Amino acid sequence: MELRQLEYFQMASRLKNITRAAERLRVSQPNITVAIKKLEAELGIQLFDRSQKQLSLTPEGAVFLTRIELALRNIQDAVLEVNDYKQLQKGTIKIGIPSMIGAYLFPKIFSSFQRKYSHLDVYLYEEGSMRIREQLERDELDFGIVILSNAAASLQTLPMAKSQIVACLPVQHPLAKKKSVSLHDIEDVSLIMLKDGSFLRKLLLDTFKQESITPDIVL
Questions:
Q1: How far is CA 51 from its chain centroid?
Q2: Residues with pLDDT less than 70, the chain
Q3: Which of 85, 113, 183, 195 has its CA 20 to 30 A from that of 93?
Q4: Whole-prediction pTM value?
């Protein structure tokens, strides 16, 4: 049993016509006919019902098609994976990172990656999570580390960590003695927030708006 026999059988099954299958695969019609007959002889079953004008699968052929389609998909995936690996032998990777994450998390990741793939050129772009997400959707970056409250349908995501938003205060500040801080607690407090394009900034501003609070952002 040869791979091309399975591919010929699959295409003939999909198009229900050997002539059109030959045109699609750019081979001669006799090649497909002979390959399918050899496949049937090897399996000891009839794959197609040839009594009708249109080619149709026998029950045995339908079962066989279901099985070999999965096998062919696995083979295609394996080829793609090998090609991806080959492409990692040289090239460039563009990565987007938020400034906060870049400061404490990325150096360790980057140094480890560079040791493993020293032949790759890595370009870092420091942006807010929202801008990184936009650049990923426009295919301007290969991947990015972003902060999201939920998975984006347009992106393939891999969760790295979960965290919560906290308020950083001077030790002597009256609010520092509280176990938790509400939005109304900081309504009249001068705030330092992340720059535009940051997901956390947008999240906080949207939450303030829902509570009809106008925060005093000084930096």
A1: 46
A2: 84-90, 100-106, 149-153
A3: 195
A4: 0.45
